[in-house]
Design brief:
Elements lengths: L2 H9 L10 E2 L4 H10 L4 H6 L5 H10 L3 E2 L3 E2 L12 E5 L5 E4 L4 E5 L8 E5 L4 H8 L8 H4 L2 E3 L4 E3 L18 E3 L5 H7 L1 H10 L1 H24 L7 E4 L3 E2 L2 E2 L3 H7 L1 H13 L5 E4 L8 H6 L4 E3 L10 H8 L4 E6 L8 H16 L3 E5 L9 H15 L1
Parallel strand pairs: 1-2, 3-10, 10-11, 11-14, 14-15, 15-16, 16-17
Antiparallel strand pairs: 4-5, 5-6, 6-7, 8-9, 12-13
Helix pairs in contact: 7-8, 8-9, 9-11, 14-15
Amino acid sequence: MTNRERILAVLNYQPYDRLPLVHFGFWRETLDKWAEEGHITREQAEKHGDGNLEDKIIGTKLGFDANYQSMFYPNAFLAPGFEPEVLEELTDGVKKVRNGDGVVVLEKPGAGSIPAEIDHLLKDRSSWEEHYRHRLQFSEDRVRDVHVWTGETSIPWPKGGLDFLRNDDRDYLYGLHCGSLFGNIRNILGVTGASYLFAEDDALFTEIIDAVGELCYRCVKMALESGAKFDFGHFWEDICFKNGPLVIPSVFDEKVGPHYKRITHLLRQYGITIVSLDCDGCIDALIPAWINNGVNTMFPIEVGTWGASIAPWRETYGKELRGVGGMNKVVFARDRAAVDEEVERLKPLVELGGYIPCPDHRIAPDAEWDAIRHYCERMRETFG
C-alpha cells in the first residue's frame, strides 16, 4: 500500500498493511538546531514548508511517512491584507505594530510566543464597511494564484486547473484547506471585541460570519470544480483555550454551523468523506457542533494539561469521530524510556480504529533528533 492508501484506510476503518507514521511539521528553531548539529542541511532548514520536497526529505530521514498538513490553501481571508506598520517604538526594542489583520500588537525581539494584542481596527459597522468587507470578496485569483506542491516542487496553479491532481494514482496524501469560519474572525475582532459585538450588534456579527462563510465556500467550490482529486477537507479554527471555548457553543452552532454544513456537503458531493479540523485548546464543548455539521476528524488532539484523548470522544460520539494527533511530543526531550512509555500508551487508542497518532503540534526545539528516530522505530515495531 502507499502512504496515501494507508492513511485513508485507517480513517475509513478499512484494512491496512501497517500504521502510517505522520507528523505536523517543525518549528523553524528546531530545523535550525538540527542543521547546526549536521542532521539536515542549512538549505533544507531554510526552504522547509509543509508538504514540500525539503519536508519530505527531513520527514523520511526521521522515519515518518507523511506530513498531515500537505494540502492546497486557497486564499480565503483578507485580500489584500493590511500593510504591516510600526506605530511606535517602545523600550528594549519592543514595537507597537499594526499587523496584516489590522490588529495592533506588541512585538518583542526574540519572542517565540504569540504577540499581545492591544487594539483592533474592526470595532463597528463603520470600520467593517471601510476596511474589511471589500477584503472578503471572492475572486478567482484567490484560487488561481496559489502555489501548489506537486510531490517534487512548488508551482503556480496552471491556467487550466490543478492538472497534476486530476490523476488519482499519486502515492502521497493531499488535502484541500477549506478556510476558517470563525478563528480568523476572532483574530481581527479579538475575543473581547467579538463578545461585545455579538451582544451589541448581532446583525453585524452575523454579517461578518456570513461574509467569511461565503468566501470559504466559493474558494472550495472553485478548487473542486477544477477536477482536482483531494483526499480530505480541512478547516482551521483555534477558538478554545485550556478551559474551553472562546465563543458560546450555542452561538457557534447557530451562526457558524450552517456554513460548515454547506461546505462539508459540497465536499461529499465530490467524494471527500474525511473532513478534519485543527483547533487548539479544550474543544469538547464544540465537538457536537462540528460533528452535526459534517466534520468527522479532530486534529491535532492536544495532550496538554487536560490530557485530551480520542478515547472519551469515541465513547460519546462513536465511530463517526476520527482523530489524527494525541501523541505527547514532550517525550522527544526526554530519554528513550519516556518514548517507549508513550508508544505503549498509544496502543489501546490505535486499537479503537479510525485514529492515527501524530505529535500534537509542530515539533519543538527541545526535541532530540535521535529520540524522534527512536519513536518512529518503536512505532514500526509495535504497529507493523
